[in-house]
Amino acid sequence: MRPTERAHREVSARLQAVARAQRLTARQGQILRLVVCGLSNKEIADQLCCSEVTVEAHMTALLRRTRSCSRTVLVATFWLELDVA
């Protein structure tokens, strides 16, 4: 297996586990995936065919649910601290 395939599988598995553990909505899970991949709110809105305001609302909910103070902390927390058991 190539390193990129392994990384993709790791991200996918972790996203599913975090989404379950944190009780994220399907849309919040999609947005979290795109944030972890480094996309901006505008890029996320374009990919999901919604407005930036909608993405911002989902980001606010994600930050509250995960008790993160910024998207940088959210991504770091995703990899280091979020309970996925």
Task: Give a written overview of the molecule.
- The protein is mainly alpha-helical and 85 residues long.
- It has one domain: Arc Repressor Mutant, subunit A (Orthogonal Bundle).
- The protein is 75% helix and 0% strand.
- It is built from five helices and no strands.
- The chain has helices at residues 3-22, 26-36, 41-48, 52-66, 71-80.
- Helix 1 runs antiparallel to helix 2 (26-36) and helix 2 (26-36) packs across helix 4 (52-66).
- The longest helix is centred in the first third of the chain and has 20 residues, at 3-22.
- The protein is globular and about 40 Å long.
- It starts with a helix and ends in a 5-residue tail after the last helix.
- 14% of the residues are buried.
- The mean pLDDT is 88.
Q: Tell me, what's the shape?
A: globular
CATH class reads Mainly Alpha
Q: Percentage of helical residues?
A: over 70%
How much of the sequence lies in strands comes to under 5%
Named CATH topology: Arc Repressor Mutant, subunit A
Structural class: mainly alpha
Annotation, overall tally of beta strands: 0
Give the mean pLDDT: 88
User: Element order, helices and strands?
Assistant: HHHHH
Would you identify the CATH H-level superfamily? Winged helix-like DNA-binding domain superfamily/Winged helix DNA-binding domain
Largest sheet features: none
Q: How many discrete structural domains?
A: 1
Please work out how many helical segments DSSP would assign.
Answer: 5
Name the CATH architecture. Orthogonal Bundle
